[in-house]
């Protein structure tokens, strides 16, 4: 879930993160900053081995 500037981006259905009762995780297809940073860190770790 990324938004840069003031213009809406991405699919409209993905612009709002609404809590679904009884859940504690996001759908796997939702990209988050934390997930992206983890992927970048893993890629960098492979380069330094």
Order of helices and strands: H
Low-confidence stretches: none
Helix content: 25-40%
Strand proportion, as a percent range, falls in under 5%
Shape: flat
How many individual helices? 1
Sketch the major β-sheet: none
Rg (CA only): 14 Å
* Total beta strand runs: 0
Protein structure class: mainly alpha
How far apart are the first and last residues' alpha carbons, in Å? 31 Å
Commentary on this structure:
The chain has one helix spanning about 35-49. It is mainly α and about 50 residues long. The model has no long low-confidence stretch (mean pLDDT about 80).
Walk me through the topology:
Blueprint: H1 33-48
Q: Quick summary of this structure?
A:
This protein has 49 residues and is mainly alpha-helical.
Structural key phrases:
single chain, 49 residues, mainly alpha, 1 helix, 33% helix
